[in-house]
Structures are given as structure tokens and as C-alpha cells.
């Protein structure tokens, strides 16, 4: 049984208190640590074009492997609480943001995401270079819990218009 927990980190706007998008996301990992979510490893940071394409600033993205005693729903609630603490207001879908924390995979669990519950694995992760490339850096043998496809196969199936560079 897989015991790994992966979260996606992303931002494309600076934060008035924490600084650049990467500095803000690093501060968010520290805040999660104060809340009992231990960071085990963080992928290299990527610069990524907005999805869908737009005139927004490019994003900074990474994936972190974390450890937590919390169940998936409570961990997702902590991610949202940190976003709120850092000033994230959910307005327009795909809007520019100072912080975005996503629960990507929780120990291989599969959940349809009933109201108030986490959808696992993250429903759009397989369509996003900014998730799959850093995930492959951390876990090159990872397989999607539903499809069974390897992270490499998912990367090969990505649309060509997605741009992510280290």
C-alpha cells in the first residue's frame, strides 16, 4: 500500500508580506509544519505558463511530499486554512493567485469527493504539466490510483501547449 501524500504548490502573484511566489509557497510549507504537516521533500521549482493560456504572469509550481496524521479531508481543510491565512480569496476559476495548495494524492486513496470531502486523486492533476513534471521528479515510479498509468505515461499524453521549465 502506498503511504505517500503529495500536495501541489502554485502561485503567480507576489505576497505583500512573504515576497515572491516561491517565497510565499515556502512560507506556506512552514505554516503547514506548525499545523502538524511535516514536509519530507520538495521537487525542483518550475516556471509554468497559465492553464488555460492567458495574459497572466507565469506561475511558480512544485510538488511536496508530506507526512501527516490527519485523514485526507482534515488535511485538505488545513491546506484551505493556510490559503485563507495567506489571504487567498476564491473568486474566478483560474484567476491569478498568491497561493494555491492542492491535495494531489493521499496514500493512493480514491474518493469521489462528496460534499465536504476531498476528491482523490486530484481530478485535474493528469492534465497539468505543472503537477506531473515536479511529481515525476519526486516519485518517478508513481502510478495514478485510478487508471494505473505511470507518471511518465501521463506526461507523454499532455497537450503540447503546456509549458513548464525548471
Number of domains: 1
Specify the overall morphology: globular
Any low-confidence stretches, pLDDT <50, length ≥5? none
Radius of gyration: 15 Å
**Main β-sheet: number of strands, strand sense, barrel status?**
6 strands, antiparallel
| Structural class based on helices, strands and sheet pairing | alpha+beta
Number of strands: 8
pLDDT average, as an integer?
94
| SS strand fraction | 15-25%
End-to-end Cα distance:
31 Å
CATH architectural name = 2-Layer Sandwich
What's the CATH superfamily, by name? 7,8-Dihydro-6-hydroxymethylpterin-pyrophosphokinase HPPK
Sequence-ordered SSE layout with sheet pairings:
Elements: E1 5-11, H1 21-34, E2 38-42, E3 46-48, E4 59-67, H2 72-85, E5 100-106, E6 111-112, E7 119-120, H3 129-138, H4 151-156, E8 164-165
In short:
The protein is of the alpha+beta class.
3D structure, described in words:
By secondary structure, the chain is of the alpha+beta class. It has a single domain (about 5-165), classed as 7,8-Dihydro-6-hydroxymethylpterin-pyrophosphokinase HPPK (Alpha-Beta Plaits). It has four helices and eight strands; from the N terminus they run E-H-E-E-E-H-E-E-E-H-H-E. The chain has helices at about 20-35, 70-85, 130-140, 150-155; strands at about 5-10, 40, 45-50, 60-65, 100-105, 110, 120, 165. The strands form two sheets. Strands 1, 2, 3, 4, 5 and 8 form a six-stranded antiparallel β-sheet that branches. It has a two-stranded antiparallel ribbon with strand order 6-7. A hairpin with a 6-residue loop joins strand 6 and strand 7. The radius of gyration is 15 Å and the shape is globular. The mean pLDDT is about 95.
Amino acid at each position: 500500500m502506498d503511504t505517500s501524500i503529495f500536495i501541489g504548490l502554485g502561485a503567480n502573484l507576489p505576497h505583500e508580506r512573504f515576497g515572491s511566489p516561491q517565497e510565499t509557497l515556502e512560507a506556506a510549507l512552514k505554516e503547514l509544519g506548525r499545523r502538524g504537516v511535516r514536509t519530507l521533500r520538495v521537487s525542483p521549482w518550475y516556471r509554468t505558463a497559465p492553464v488555460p493560456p492567458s495574459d497572466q504572469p507565469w506561475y511558480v509550481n512544485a510538488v511536496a511530499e508530506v507526512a501527516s496524521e490527519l485523514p485526507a479531508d482534515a488535511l485538505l481543510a488545513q491546506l484551505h486554512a493556510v490559503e485563507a491565512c495567506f489571504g487567498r480569496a476564491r473568486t474566478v476559476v483560474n484567476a491569478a493567485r498568491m497561493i494555491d495548495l492542492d491535495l494531489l494524492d493521499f496514500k493512493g486513496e480514491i474518493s469521489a469527493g462528496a460534499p465536504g470531502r476531498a476528491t482523490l486523486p486530484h481530478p485535474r492533476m493528469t492534465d497539468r504539466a505543472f503537477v506531473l513534471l515536479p511529481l515525476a521528479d519526486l516519485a518517478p515510479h508513481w502510478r495514478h490510483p485510478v487508471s494505473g498509468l505511470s507518471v511518465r505515461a501521463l506526461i507523454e499524453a499532455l497537450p503540447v501547449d503546456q509549458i513548464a521549465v525548471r
